[in-house]
Q: What sequence folds into this?
């Protein structure tokens, strides 16, 4: 085990990196850029989170031509890697067009692919998702698909060229945490070598820590930080929770058991299980 | 003293009137043909400082309080009937969240909502009532300000005149107060435009005495009652600088919200749709920036009518008294943010 004590060893910490499409990252937190009280608070929150990747929605802000340029340049100036997304796209065609525009604006082949299938849950349309992933991968994009925990869909996304999978924790913006821990656990077990990111539904730092304890590689979230009373403090809280969860996962958690097991040895005592007179 | 004010939106007009009230001669230069035809024209006119505490920095709330007295006493155009916040049953957590971040409201149940706004009787289970807040019709306020300025005999207006960064159209003045909003980006490179779309509905079937805000996780919408059965419904907030293109999606969101508040809006006439750019600095906070004998009053973002009175009086005191106001200065941004 790389972790020798409860005090994280700096050198060991440095070796625990993460890789997406050949790019190495040290932070496991990916942060969205919407819904903040101001771009200045957004920038402070990103710094406090330690995130090295931020996602940006193009669909809504783009307008005609490059009317979103002022905001995009603020994002570019954050000095972090940009993962443009296709949030709000409902068809394969829309998603592909938006991705192409994103590549233009931000000069990156990375694209977080969202094809939304249903309004109340903003659930991904997994059929459109797989098709769009195939088109974009063939066109040289590095696709980060926003998907469900369905294993068959996941297989098809990998076959379509995706090298990262991003299953939901819960519907976008709900802050409900991990709705289906069993499904997420199964996904982790099924794809041991694929970087897995829990995307959407995370509400509190403990949700993020729980996902990391399941062995997930990273967390992508937006609302939980942007809409917090103090976004900057919440960003820091998430950074700490991710570290704790990741460290806990790598440290090898104990197995839960049904009966109490005293942590102090009882051998040598005359009677056990009998109250003292 | 002779003061040149550039821009006849709410910022320029309130600044001009501050100097007129202090006995200065003021020339207002405006590139459009009339006052208040920039983003002031599309404003909601909510004077809701307590509600602002939900998403704005404390400095916006503090400066905003000054607006309540200003639009009651100095330019008496506001109606002080409070404001009402409601949420659809499925978005009630938003109401809880809003209440946690704000103060000076009363939580109302169905019955109390109906007593306050009879047309909302039975439509919502819970509401927050900010009884000391107010609202005004921005277009009426602009007319009232222009009339006060003209009646003073100290102000002159020059319309259809462009006073840009090159100093073209500048007049011989002791001080220039630049209140051009987003157009001042030529001199204020950190300024950005945040697009807002709105619409005006007209119906005789509904009457409200106060603005109704419908909370929604993505697009909170307010409906502000105006004269003649008109209702201003606004406003989207989009991070782009595209002027004058109203999108179908924005109208779907705004009309959907209006319909949720009251289905009779479905039969209302769409009188107007509009959009413009709110001028904002990266922290979305207002500034008075000084360059020699020129002051820039800008960055009022979505709080034009709420912040203009406080900024105008500070601009006047900076010029006439040499006063300094950390809450609207660049150097003290960090300080005022952590306050």
A:
């Amino acid at each position: 085990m790389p972790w020798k004590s409860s005090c994280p060893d700096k050198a060991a910490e440095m070796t625990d990196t993460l890789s997406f499409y050949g790019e190495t990252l040290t932070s496991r937190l990916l942060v969205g850029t919407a819904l903040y009280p101001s771009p200045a608070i957004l920038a402070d929150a990103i710094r406090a989170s330690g995130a090295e990747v931020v996602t940006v929605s193009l669909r809504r802000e783009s307008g005609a031509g490059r009317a979103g340029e002022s905001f995009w340049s603020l994002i570019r100036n954050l000095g972090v890697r940009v993962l443009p997304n296709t949030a709000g796209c409902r068809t394969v065609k829309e998603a592909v067009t938006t991705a192409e525009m994103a590549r233009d604006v931000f000069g990156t082949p990375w694209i977080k692919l969202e094809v939304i299938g249903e309004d109340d849950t903003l659930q991904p349309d997994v059929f459109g998702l797989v098709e769009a992933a195939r088109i974009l991968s063939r066109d040289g994009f590095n696709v980060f698909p926003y998907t469900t925990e369905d294993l068959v869909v996941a297989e098809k996304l990998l076959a379509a060229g995706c090298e990262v999978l991003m299953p939901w924790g819960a519907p976008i913006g709900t802050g409900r945490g991990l709705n289906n821990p069993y499904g997420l656990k199964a996904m982790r077990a099924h794809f041991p070598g694929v970087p897995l990111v829990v995307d959407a539904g995370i509400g509190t730092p403990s949700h993020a820590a729980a996902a990391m304890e399941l062995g997930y590689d990273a967390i992508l979230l937006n609302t939980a930080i942007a809409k917090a009373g103090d976004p900057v403090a919440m960003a820091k809280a998430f950074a700490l929770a991710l570290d704790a969860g990741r460290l806990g996962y790598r440290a090898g958690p104990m197995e839960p058991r049904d009966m109490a097991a005293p942590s102090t040895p009882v051998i040598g005592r005359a009677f056990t299980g009998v109250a003292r007179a | 003293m002779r003061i040149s004010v550039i821009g006849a939106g709410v910022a320029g007009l309130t600044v001009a009137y501050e100097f007129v009230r202090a006995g200065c001669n003021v020339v207002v230069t405006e590139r459009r043909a009339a006052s208040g035809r920039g983003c002031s024209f599309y404003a909601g006119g909510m004077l809701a400082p307590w509600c602002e505490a939900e998403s704005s920095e404390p400095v916006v709330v503090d400066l905003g309080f000054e607006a309540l007295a200003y639009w009651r006493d100095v330019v008496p155009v506001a109606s002080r009937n409070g404001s009402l916040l409601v949420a659809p049953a499925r978005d009630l957590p938003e109401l809880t969240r809003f209440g946690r971040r704000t103060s000076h409201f009363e939580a109302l149940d169905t019955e109390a909502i109906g007593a306050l706004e009879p047309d909302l009787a039975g439509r919502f289970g819970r509401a927050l009532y900010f009884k000391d807040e107010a609202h005004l019709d921005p277009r009426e306020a602009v007319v009232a300000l222009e009339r006060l300025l003209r009646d003073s005999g100290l102000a002159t207006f020059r319309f259809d005149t462009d006073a840009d960064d090159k100093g073209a159209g500048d007049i011989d003045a002791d001080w220039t107060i630049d209140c051009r909003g987003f157009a001042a980006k030529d001199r204020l490179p950190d300024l950005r435009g945040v697009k807002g779309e709105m619409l005006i509905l007209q119906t005789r079937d509904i009457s409200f005495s106060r603005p109704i805000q419908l909370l929604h996780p993505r697009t909170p919408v307010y409906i502000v009652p105006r004269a003649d059965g008109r209702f201003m419904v606004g406003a989207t907030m989009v991070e782009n600088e595209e002027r004058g293109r109203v999108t179908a999606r924005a109208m779907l969101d705004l009309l959907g919200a209006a319909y949720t508040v009251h289905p009779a809006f479905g039969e209302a006439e769409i009188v107007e749709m509009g959009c413009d750019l709110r001028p904002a600095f990266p922290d979305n906070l207002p500034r008075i920036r000084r360059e020699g004998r020129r002051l820039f009053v800008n960055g009022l973002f979505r709080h034009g009518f709420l912040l203009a009175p406080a900024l105008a009086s500070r601009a006047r005191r900076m010029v006439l008294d040499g006063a300094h106001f950390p809450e609207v200065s660049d150097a003290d941004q960090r300080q005022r943010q952590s306050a």
Remarks:
- Chain B has two domains: 2-45+137-188+282-338, 83-131+192-280.
- Residues 99 and 215 of chain B are 12 Å apart (CA to CA).
- Chain B has nine helices and 16 strands.
- Chain B touches chain A at residues 55-57, 97, 100-101, 192-193, 195, 217-218, 238-242, 245, 280-285, 337 (CB under 8 Å).
